[in-house]
Amino acid sequence: MNAPVLFEHAKRGGVTVKVTIADYNGNRFLDIREWVSRDGQPLATRKGATMPLDGIAGLHASLGAYLAANAPGGPSRP
User: What does the alpha-carbon distance between residue 19 and residue 67 come to, in Å, rounded to a whole number?
Assistant: First the structure.
């Protein structure tokens, strides 16, 4: 994997979710994907999603709004 990892989250079973900026056919995408280790080397699985970089601002705004309304210590959920 050549792309720098922006975020990483370990799951059970040796699976890691990594967020990277990936290049594909000359285009750059935000890539959120599960990774496993095979023969000591990181291997991307088919489980994941990509989105064009121009969608990151909208994702950021949506996540920020969700966290503002639902963060621990914030407003309680019904």
Answer: 19
